[in-house]
Design brief:
The protein has about 80 residues and is mostly helical. The protein has a domain of about 55 residues. The chain contains 3 helices and no strands. Helix 1 runs antiparallel to helix 3. The protein is elongated, with a radius of gyration of 18 Å. The termini are close together. Keywords: Cell membrane, Membrane, Protein transport, Translocation, Transmembrane, Transmembrane helix, Transport.
């Protein structure tokens, strides 16, 4: 394996973990199983503060980076570059 391919594989693992954490940090929108067990008492569920907007931006950015690295790894594999 080339150093670039190993680096991209490490990057995609780190991005995957980071993306998972960012998704888990999002506020629930309700209507799921949490409402069934008393979790539906949240207030201001429709509003989104600055922190939530920034969390959304970071989640989208990390997801786009993850997709780009995944495509890069696929192209490297397809054309035997690594």
């Amino acid at each position: 394996m080339t150093a670039l391919k190993i680096t991209l594989e490490v990057v995609i693992v780190v991005l995957s973990c980071l993306l998972t954490l960012l998704i888990l940090m999002h506020k629930g929108k309700g209507g799921g199983l949490s409402d069934m067990f008393g979790g539906g008492l949240t207030q201001n569920a429709g509003t989104s503060g600055v922190a939530e907007k920034n969390l959304n931006r970071w989640t989208v950015i990390i997801a786009l980076l993850w997709v780009a690295v995944a495509i890069g790894l696929d192209l490297m594999t397809k054309f035997n570059l690594g």
